[in-house]
């Protein structure tokens, strides 16, 4: 099968190679001896793959390896009792191996793909929407009627967070860096959009009538203190990622003074050993698809052989919505 591997750690421009590999056996590292085998139609591309080309992501497989943590495609074979059958359209989290014509995924990370979504949209469903649901609901304890501020709101996690928050009955304020990204955040359903280079903290406080309830932060960096300041009483900042490059530090007196919280949300680390949690989140995300709230926004699309361009786009802060590789 055709595939792309990371062969060295020289960055997105040069670390990838086109290869021809044997198709994978029905076995996954999380479920040895068992896996759903999927004919891949689309593979999702995300920030972690960029970091992996430099050896900077926490998950460091030995070189060379096929990157790519999620796919949409058609089931070729599935374990007995998985509820999946040959020919089913699915969206799946595979951890690695998505940048290939055939991928394997654990059955508990493979979900029926609604007819309302195409394969490109399906390839952006697991990582971003499961993270969004986990961050908002399970970690952020979001309640109906609350206000959520979303950083990096035109990105993959950001657009997913806006849609899931709307589906959970919240009001959303998106933070973005330019006009194009503002349009994407609005297309995702943001109620309000503010600019990262404007006094967004004051605008958010005004728009929310005194302070937001939840901040979802995939960006980090020097805006973190203003995120804390934008909270109302009882507000929560949920730490999701660090695309801004630096890991912020918290002066905890701020938490005490305003009765606020900082909460970590590491979706992968939490759910990988919890099949039932994955199934629950998958069912909730599919319910939000059926209800019309979840419609992954697909940005740039590339054929498999141009995977490095997809990574460079993300690396250069140029991506909007989900970046996708069309595999077949
Ligand atoms: N915790 C978890 O379980 C979990 C799960 C999935 C992903 N993540 C993490 O979440 C983060 C976001 O992933 P994503 O797929 O949404 O990425 P993305 O689509 O590339 O979006 C990231 C956004 O970050 C903003 N940003 C600010 N400074 C940036 C910089 N220097 N370089 C690049 N982007 C910058 C950009 O928005 P503006 O230009 O508008 O500022 C961009 O749209 C990543 O760190 C990823 O590893 C965490």
Q: Can you describe this structure?
A:
- By secondary structure, the protein is an alpha/beta fold.
- Helix content is 29%, strand content 26%.
- The strands form three sheets. Strands 3, 4, 5, 6, 7, 14 and 15 form a seven-stranded mixed β-sheet that branches. A six-stranded parallel β-sheet has the order 10-9-8-11-12-13, with helices on both faces.
- Helix 3 crosses helix 4 (156-167) and helix 3 packs across helix 10.
- The site of NADP nicotinamide-adenine-dinucleotide phosphate has 30 residues, from helix 1, helix 3, helix 4 and helix 9.
N-to-C CA distance: 12 Å
Shape: globular
- The count of DSSP E runs of length 2 or more, i.e. the number of strands, is 15
Low-pLDDT stretches are none
Strand and helix order:
EEEHEEEEHHEHEHEHEHEHEHHEHE
Strand-residue proportion: 25-35%
What share of residues is helical? 25-40%
In short:
This protein has about 325 residues and is α/β, with parallel strands linked by helices. The chain has 11 helices and 15 strands. The strands form 3 sheets. Strands 3, 4, 5, 6, 7, 14 and 15 form a 7-stranded mixed β-sheet that branches.
């Amino acid at each position: 099968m055709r595939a792309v591997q990371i062969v060295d750690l020289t960055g997105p421009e040069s670390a990838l190679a086109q290869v021809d590999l044997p198709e994978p056996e029905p076995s996954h590292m999380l479920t040895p001896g068992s896996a759903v085998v999927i004919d891949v139609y689309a593979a999702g591309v995300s920030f972690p793959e960029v970091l992996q080309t430099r050896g900077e992501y926490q998950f460091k497989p030995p070189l060379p390896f096929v990157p790519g943590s999620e796919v949409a495609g058609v089931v070729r074979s599935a374990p007995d009792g998985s509820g999946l059958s040959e020919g089913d359209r699915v969206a799946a989290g595979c951890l690695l191996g998505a940048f290939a014509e055939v991928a394997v995924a654990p059955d508990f990370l493979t979900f029926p793909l609604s007819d309302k979504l195409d394969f490109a949209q399906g390839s952006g469903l697991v990582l971003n929407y499961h993270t969004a649901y986990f961050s908002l609901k399970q970690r952020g304890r979001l309640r109906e009627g609350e206000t959520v501020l979303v950083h990096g709101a035109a990105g993959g996690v950001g657009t997913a967070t806006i849609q899931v928050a709307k589906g959970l009955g919240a009001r959303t304020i998106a933070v973005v860096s330019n006009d194009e990204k503002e349009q994407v955040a609005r297309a995702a359903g943001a109620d309000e959009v503010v600019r990262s280079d404007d006094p967004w903290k004051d605008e958010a406080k005004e728009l929310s009538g005194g302070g937001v309830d939840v901040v979802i932060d995939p960006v980090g960096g020097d805006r973190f203190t203003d995120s804390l300041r934008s909270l109302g009483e009882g507000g929560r900042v949920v730490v999701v990622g660090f695309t801004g490059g630096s890991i912020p530090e918290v002066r905890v007196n701020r938490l005490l003074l305003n009765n606020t919280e900082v909460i970590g949300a590491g979706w992968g680390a939490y759910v990988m050993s919890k099949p039932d949690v994955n199934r629950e989140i998958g069912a909730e995300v599919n319910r939000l698809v059926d209800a019309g709230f979840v419609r992954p926004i697909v940005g740039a699309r590339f054929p498999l052989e141009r995977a490095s361009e997809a990574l460079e786009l993300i690396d250069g802060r140029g991506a909007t919505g989900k970046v996708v590789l069309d595999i077949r």
